[in-house]
Amino acid sequence: MGRTGRFVGVALLAACIGLPAARAAAPAPMAVVDSQIAAHPDATGATLLDTGEEALLARAWLADHAERSIEVQYFIWSSDNIGILATEALLRAAERGVKVRVIVDDLLIDAPDKSLLALAKHPNVDIRIYNPKHQVGTPLHKRLINVVTDFRGVNQRMHDKTFIVDGKVAITGGRNMADEYFDYDQAYTFRDRDVLLLGEAVRAMRANFDAFWVSPLSVPVESLYDGWGLMQKNVKVGAAEVKQVTRELHAYAAKPENFAPQVRAAIAATPESFDRLAREMAWGRVEFIHDVPGKNGRRWRLDGGGQSSAALAKLVAGARESIVIQSPYLVMSDNAKALFKAAIARGVKVRILTNSLASTDNLQAFSGYRSQRKALLKMGLDIREYKPDPANRAELLSRANPPAQPPVFALHAKSMVVDGKIAYIGTFNFDPRSENLNTEVGAIIHHPGLAQRLQARMEADMRPENSWSARDEPDQYVPLTKRGQVRLWQLLPLKPLL
To answer: To the nearest whole percent, how much of the chain has pLDDT over 90?
Structure first.
């Protein structure tokens, strides 16, 4: 599951703040974070979490060492291995007195009703569901009514992904709480990316979380199960059931087959060497960009943009030499096309890596890209499509005991580098849904060193052994049946929803 000799949890935090190993094992790790933040007033430290192992161990270490508070926002929270272990880690934090607040989007949450309600009963745990029109507390007939009467509402989702500890250390990026985002899925996994932040930008992240927390769109989970009519589920849990859910979570996490001992050891170990992360910690100006709850003021139409869209458009408009992008989905609106046409006209070289038909997890989104691929190439965009079996897969899959057959790989990282000086890492896909419907977040990092390191990793993913050129018709590498499915999706007027 995880290599003990590589990036360990304490290594991650100790290294990124540049401390010697002896101090990394000190009994008050968050006091060390305070000293580093104090040494860089009005600045933010940033380091990339480029593998699933790094990202998992960072979250686990931070959850285990939180002192006062943990706030998390996710679009997907599954009841698979990673989802259960993450839930248990938050529960353990709550049991030692840490205040835990969770906001999860309603569309793809995967949790038994009684388990969700039992967790919310803990005095130190508060759970809210964003825009609950699909799953939590909603019977099927009510969901169908919502689709008919509030089509934009059911399509407006919270795509934010943030993990904030004690208001001073945070993670944001592409990963949801599910196996495939952390190399735990044996059949299909994502090449994804997060960024760990310390200091000033974390205040903005927490302020954004608070704005979502008090929004009417974020509904306490208890109130979603107390209905008696046909329009709401009625679910109750007693004290005995609450204790049972708690026992089962702790028992699950204690089993070696669910949480390997070597992963626990990695989280707890003191590193022998952390030179790489110490070198890569970048201190400087970081903008945390985000949308407001609801995205924009539209109620019936599916357009309208948002604050995150405007911030990224400003970056593209300001580019003078180069733009390098990774996005799992690539469906450009007319506004986006005009923006990139203007960039190319002033001499900016634009390179984009997106999923191929062979790697994508979303045929509907790929159909939108396929419909405009020729036009985008004609514009002058250099587009590469990610292979399902890239040559660097083994390097990125940091697992001690890999499966007999390597999983299909797909791109899920959402990143951009402008002029080799400014980096963006976040949740924004280059498609109409991220532009107009889903709330998005991300970090814009003004640090040439970090931007160049990120660009080098993105360019590595674009090499011929890892990706195809879109001009070489990569669809030829998938069966005719799959190509036929995409053609059928292309016939439907789905673009605003992609």
So the answer is: 69
Question: pLDDT (tens digit, 9 = 90+) per residue, 421-430?
Answer: 999 999 999 9
Please state whether beta strands 99-105 and 69-74 pair in parallel, antiparallel, or not at all (unpaired): parallel
Distance CA 407, CA 11 (A): 28
Burial of 236 (0-12, 13-18, 19+ CB in 10 A): exposed
Label residue 82 left, alpha or beta by phi (over 0 means left) and psi (-120 to 50 means alpha).
alpha
User: What is the Cα–Cα distance from 168 to 284, expressed in whole angstroms?
Assistant: 15
Supply φ then ψ for residue 40, to 5 degrees. Answer: -130, 65
Select from 372, 367, 346 the least CA-distant residue to 357. Answer: 367
Sign of the CA dihedral with 471 first, then 477, 483, and 489 last: negative
With 70 as the cut, is the pLDDT of residue 309 above it? yes
Domains of the chain plus CATH, in order, are 9-277 (3.30.870.10), 291-497 (3.30.870.10)
146: left (phi over 0), alpha (psi -120 to 50) or beta: alpha
User: Where is average pLDDT lowest: 1-5, 235-239, 297-301, 364-368?
Assistant: 1-5
Pairwise CA distance, residues 456 & 454, whole Å: 5
Burial label for 498, CB within 10 Å (0-12, 13-18, 19+), is buried
pLDDT in tens, 121-130: 999 999 999 9
Q: What is the pLDDT of residue 401?
A: 52
